[in-house]
Amino acid sequence: MTPAWESAALRLVTDLRNIFSDRLRSVVAYGSHVDGDTSVPLTCLALVTDLTVTDLESCAGRAAQWDRHGIGTPLLLPQAEFVRSLDAFPLEYGEIIRAHHRVFGDDPFEGVAIAREDLRRAVETQIKSHLLHLREGFIEAGGKPVAIGALVTSSAAAFTALLRHVAWLNGGANTDRLQSTREGALAAGISERLVSDMLALERGGAMQVTDPARLVPEYLGAVEQLARTVDAWRC
Fold first, then answer.
1. Which candidate, 116, 202, 100, 215, places its Cα nearest to that of 159?
2. Which neighbouring-strand residues pair with 43?
3. For residues 26 and 47, is the Cβ–Cβ distance under 8 A?
4. CB 120, CB 230: distance < 8 Å
5. What is the CATH number of the domain that holds 207?
6. 177 in a domain, yes or no?
């Protein structure tokens, strides 16, 4: 059975081919929509040989139409620029490389690899930044359960992404989003119960508004554990 998102991706390909012609090298779909969360727009990476202001203007003229069809603004990059930027955005581009569906063109990631030290450094930065913002947000919540719950809920997606990054750093190659999240938790010694609760919050689970506040002690401890784990990593 053809995935529901594929028709939208092919619509995007048609538009991009009309704009770039044979300068369009490849298009891949990735992200939460492909993973089944149809409440968010479809995200795609499109690699081209070159990118001009005229191209951007042509894409801008189609932006409203893409939005009506549930297609997010594509990530447009010249192919050479993408390869040269892997060290600057190892997590962002690495996540696309790790779990994507090719929609058009050749495999854009053949022979492309993220340096493990670039990955480790980026993972460490994100984890420690998440920890700082979580502590700051807790203080700003002023002890109000609803505000604390909102903090936990709003940061759930970032937390589960950190677990997937840890799984990847640990050598995991699983492209299933949920399984990769759980693999990262296992590698860092994070409890399965907390992971299940955070995944439920990320996907709009049925927990009551004030319920997430009860997760704070374990949640903070888990992010601190992630920081210790990555600190001790040796590439």
1. 202
2. 30
3. yes
4. yes
5. 1.20.120
6. yes
Residue type, 198: M
Taking only the tens place, the pLDDT of each residue in 5-50 is: 999 999 999 999 999 999 999 999 998 888 777 888 999 999 999 9
Looking at residue 95, what is its pLDDT? 84
Q: How far apart are CA 66 and CA 124, in angstroms?
A: 36
Higher pLDDT, 98 or 120: 120
How far apart, in whole angstroms, are the C-alpha atoms of residue 207 and residue 114?
Answer: 38
Query: Which of 107, 162, 141, 136 lies closest to 210, judged by CA?
Result: 141
Q: Is residue 33 part of a domain?
A: yes
pTM value is 0.75
Structural domain count, the chain: 2
- The CA distance from 149 to 214, in Å, is 8
Q: Please check whether residue 110 lies inside any domain of the structure.
A: no
> Can you point out the beta strands (E) in 49-191?
75-78, 100-105
- Give first-to-last CA distance, the chain, whole Å: 41
Instruction: Out of 73, 105, 137, pick the residue that ends a domain.
Output: 105
Same domain, yes or no, for 74 and 120? no
Domain range holding 44? 4-105
Q: Residues 216, 151: one domain?
A: yes
- Domain boundary, last residue among 60, 82, 105: 105
Total number of residues shown for the chain: 235
